[in-house]
Amino acid sequence: MKRLFAAIALAAAAAASFAQGTSTSPAQGYPGKPITLVVPFAAGGPTDVVARALGQAMTRTLGQAIVIENKLGAGGTLAAGYVAKAAPDGYTLLIHHNGMSTAPALYRKLAYNPLTDFEYVTQVVDVPMTLLGRKDLPAKDLQELIAYLKANAAKVNLAHAGLGAVSHLCGMVFRQAIGVELQTVPYQGTAPAMNALLGGQVDLLCDQTTQTTQHIKAGSVKLYGVTTRERIKALPDAPTLQEQGLRNFEVVVWHGVYAPKGTPKEVIDKVNAAVRAALKDPTVIQRMSELGGEIVPESKQTPEALRGWLKTEVDRWGPVIRAAGVYAD
Ligand code: ASP
């Protein structure tokens, strides 16, 4: 009898070790091929700049290329909808900004739910915005700009990257703060919107410093103010809109990395570790600090923190947007 038990125990142990040896966890071998990081706006724009900086550093950690795919349209909602429906295998990821939280109130027919159709990887960087005018706009500073807009509202236009884009949100907050209706011109990202501003086809653009710093430093646009509470290190001479009298004017762009719902936790953990490593990479740190981007503290570099923040932002913007009656069918 004893011998029988011993034999059974031996067989069970052998079976267990065989099972261990052959079972494959979903993250085993991941990533075994290039990963696509979807950017909802045009190449060369501010969101794209953040994505490419991260992607290059992640490639070094993961040993696989991070391929940036710019999926344009509908203020970033086409890209988010595309990733929500992609295979949940860790090979299709999304980087997006505040638009992830404003879209449910802005779009009556949204093809996804930001709070239930994704896995959350981490927040990455916070980026200030700047209010810019074309170089030959007659107004020298914010006060002159406001006077100019009041007198010329009908012929002034503001470029933006579509309903759900932060350039649109910033423009709307500005419009409301000064009480002037401005014409708006949508583009599929603020890279083309910036080209239109540089070419003098549009008058105003509010955009992230990850794109605007170089043009401000080159003197090719007029700077009317920064959208943060305090001045920023990357542009120390640039006044904030608040210090020039637009009380409570604050728009900060936050970014998160997402994966389709159902992506295995082990895969999310690997991507999270690679993004965290990228956020410690000296090249990324330097690039972000030159461009005014602030890497989020480690406490925000978790899936839970991103999910929690997104929920807070959805709850914050929903009522504001619904009250303003801005929406797309
Ligand atoms: N800055 C853009 C926005 O307004 C997006 C972009 O082109 O990166 O949302």
Brief sketch in words of this structure:
The chain is α/β, with parallel strands linked by helices and 329 residues long. It contains eleven helices and ten strands.
Written description of the protein model:
This protein has 329 residues and is α/β, with parallel strands linked by helices. 44% of the residues lie in helices and 19% in strands. It is built from eleven helices and ten strands. Strand 5, helix 6 and strand 6 form a beta-alpha-beta unit. Helix 2 packs across helix 8, helix 2 runs antiparallel to helix 10 and helix 4 runs parallel beside helix 11. The radius of gyration is 23 Å and the shape is globular. It starts with a helix and ends in a 5-residue tail after the last helix. The site of aspartic acid has 15 residues, from helix 2, helix 6, helix 7 and strand 7.
Write the topology of this structure.
Elements: H1 2-22, E1 35-39, H2 46-62, E2 66-70, H3 77-84, E3 92-96, H4 99-106, E4 118-134, H5 142-152, E5 157-160, H6 166-178, E6 183-186, H7 190-198, E7 204-208, H8 209-218, E8 221-226, E9 252-260, H9 265-280, H10 282-290, E10 294-295, H11 303-324
Parallel strand pairs: 1-2, 1-3, 5-6, 5-7
Antiparallel strand pairs: 3-9, 4-7, 4-8, 4-9, 4-10
Bound molecules: aspartic acid (ASP).
Aspartic acid (ASP) binds at residues 41-42, 45-48, 161, 165-167, 189-191, 207-208.
- Distinct ligands: aspartic acid
Q: Quick check: average pLDDT? A: 92
Shape: globular
Give the percentage of residues in beta strands: 15-25%
Radius of gyration: 23 Å
CATH H-level homologous superfamily name of the largest domain: Bordetella uptake gene, domain 1
Number of domains: 2
In DSSP terms (H or I, runs of 4 or more residues), the helix count works out at 11
- Structure class: alpha/beta
Which CATH class of the largest domain applies here? Alpha Beta
By oligomeric state, this entry counts as single chain
CATH topology of the largest domain: D-Maltodextrin-Binding Protein, domain 2
Order of helices and strands: HEHEHEHEHEHEHEHEEHHEH
Binned, the helix content reads 40-55%
- Number of extended strands: 10
| Proper CATH architecture of the largest domain | 3-Layer(aba) Sandwich
Distance between the termini: 76 Å
Low-confidence stretches: 1-22
Largest sheet: 10 strands, mixed
